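Need residues for this backbone.
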């Protein structure tokens, strides 16, 4: 199973304060819209998403179809295939994705209550 780009999506209280903190750790703005309350910060191959007012808890995010630079991969495991595989293994992944191809997403929760977002953009 190829899950693609990995990042931690952080629920932040103050986007500007968090941006400055992570810049001090060597991260740079990679993508996002500060007016909408979100940024993707990058340090080498490490990605961190900063999201103000969008969700309550931190989320582990995988983007099937993308590499760590948000470039399309030639080969990847489609989100629908990942969801089907998880369901076969008894893991609740919510409602089945209704589209046959293209962008799709779903969430699962690990045994410790951590949310994992599978978010395919291609």
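Answer:
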């Amino acid at each position: 199973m190829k899950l693609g780009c990995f990042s931690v999506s952080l629920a932040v209280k103050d986007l500007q304060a968090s941006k400055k903190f992570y810049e001090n750790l060597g991260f740079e703005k990679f993508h996002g819209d500060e007016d909408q309350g979100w940024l993707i910060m990058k340090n080498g191959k490490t990605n961190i998403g900063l999201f103000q007012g969008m969700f309550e808890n931190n989320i582990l995010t995988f983007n099937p179809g993308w590499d760590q630079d948000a470039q399309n991969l030639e080969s990847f495991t489609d989100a629908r295939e990942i969801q089907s595989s998880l369901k076969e293994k008894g893991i609740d992944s919510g409602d089945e994705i209704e589209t046959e191809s293209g962008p799709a997403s779903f969430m699962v929760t690990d045994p410790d209550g951590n949310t994992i977002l599978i978010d395919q953009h291609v």
